[in-house]
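Issue: copy button drops trailing tokens. Both records pasted manually instead:
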Amino acid sequence: AKLIARLVASCFCLPGTRGINNGTSLRSAGLVIDTDLGFDDLIAIKSYTSLRTKPDINIITTVQGINDPADAAICLRQLFPSTVVACGGFSKKSRSLNLPEWLIDYKKDFKQFTEKNMLDDRSITGEEEGKKKCSDSTEKKMIKVLEGHQDNSVDLICLGPLTNVANWLRVPTTENLMAKKLKEIWIMGGNDVAENANVHRPEFNFKQDPSAANEVLTNSKIADKIRVVTEQISSPQNAPDGLFEFMKIKHGAGNGILSKVVHRWPEEIFFDPVCVFSYSNPGHIELRKVSFRIDPESGLLSSGKGDGKAQTNDHTVDFVTYVPIEGKNGLTSWINEAIEKDELQEQNDATS
């Protein structure tokens, strides 16, 4: 029998806020993506552009997380030569964290893959050299995008730690501009706050810069724009049995970047791709308003009171609570369609 994965997070929700986003609202005119460019970021952004989804990406900013900002910027400029890419910065927290073994191996795999498939034999920069090359002002370029659009018409997708976003919000004029111009802010990060979720550790992006996560999620000027896609709702653990082997086989002969990544690391279709899929397909997901608290030292989310006794450290934003994985409206169909279009473009480029 065909397996269908229905991801339902039993979050603590405010009364009367459950519902499916019907997708009837007009799409925004502009889009900014902030990323630390892991394999899942690469799949997410490339899938979005391969499907020629609207709005077009106005700017991609890079942030320290899975990869260094300069390294990520080099790859993105190679992959999207017509898109403005601005190199962001590091947080004090991310500089002091010791890299876990899995991340060291991940960065090594990413470096080898990009040097072979994306960088035209140019070596990716070392960390210290990368820091020197990260002189772009993401804030100035963000402001330029916002000022060029009407009010409530630009979306922001955050696929890495929230360091850049917090830095922008710390400048009062930029904060006011973001509150005025941004329509939606989609954040891949954080953890499920339901009491039965039994989550005792912060999600990776929030852990890298917990103070930034705290500043962004508790900012009252943008709270109504935020949509959170948690680690639990986007995890590869939600994949139906056999999905990864199916994706490896299906895309083993492809020559495009998407085919190569998905064939080698099929589990990377989760996390950031789930966030971008949710943004791109609002009629197929569910959102709920969730009362939460955040520990500014660790980035761990917990449930808020959600009643008249709520304390000042209780906050409420929209959490994504359902994402279809299989079926014609699901994540895998979205990824597969993007790969098909990427392969066609690869073929056209080869013959032109």
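Record 2 (pasted manually too):
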Amino acid sequence: AGAGVDGVDAARLEQMVQTVDAGSVGARVVLVDGMVARIEGSDVAPEVNVAAWTDVDGDVQAEALQVLRSARETGLVHGDVFHKLNAAAMQDVCVVSVPAGVEIDKPIHLLSIATGIANSDATACHHPRIVVLARDNAKVAIVEQHVCLDDSTSAFVNSCTTVSPSRGATVEHALLSNLTADSYHIAGVYAAVPRDARYALCSVNTRARVSRTTAGINLYEPGADCSLYGLGLATKRATVDLHSRIIHGQKNCTSEQLQKNVAAERGHAIFRGRVIVNQGASQTDSQQLCKSLLLSSTAEVDAMPNLEIHCDDVKCTHGATVADLTEDELFYIQSRGLSEEVARFLLVNGFAEEILQKVPSSIGSDSIRSDVQDLARTMRSRPQDMATYSSV
């Protein structure tokens, strides 16, 4: 096959792009090593702007630049060194802009492909940058998917996505990280949510040697709402890490967070969730929960939910659970005539499926389901007292 983008194998690139039916997405943007390589699909309103930085309309570019420089975003980053590294090293910006009142029925697919360094054992570094703008009462679903060109690729991907909904807008955002076992993914997601707007993030992390997602959400006007759902799959010697910071800055704001982790073999799953209710943010409704399955005596789970309340008249809950599959759960399914191996498969698969169903499209989630099912199939009967080695 001939060369593709900057020497990337064109046939392999086309094969990866075509794994998703073009009819299932409103538009597709393919980023190769952090740079917009192609944009296809036109099943969106003509006034919707999906483009690389150099092709963005002047007014949209000015707004995107203001968002990138926003003091609200800076406050959410809170000294994140990887955000600064992305800002210094990024080579392009993918911009998605949805005008006021426009509702897009099909999701916009942002496929970020990382390549390695030819004939070298060195790890390639890439810094994708994405900005999503949704004006008043607009509605859009974004599926951001990070993959490697092939199984031999070793890459360090430092992605940063900034979401800026206007009043009354709704943005559903799926962040799917499915790199190779020799790769590293540091993902930053930042959103400032105004009055009556809603932002929903579903992050799923599998395969990579180290995968860390940092989510910063600022509910800075009354009536703002956000939901954070996450799934981390830590197997072999992988580390899956989620750090979140939700700020309730004004009254009558709501937030919901559910993080699920599966740790097996020598995997390490980490959750550190922080909810801050500022002074004056009365009538806040916030729920935070982390559930983890610890399927091996050599795996680790660290769960650190954190709630800071600086005012009265709020309804806030937070908590964490870490456990192996219980004898009662296994017995219930086995009593229906199924083997213990099948029972383990069903329980692990069902545990993850609750989060995967939050992805606004089947794009990318099928391969992640396959990873979960492969893990579930490898689970075999073992003494239940091994679960006493759980660490929190």
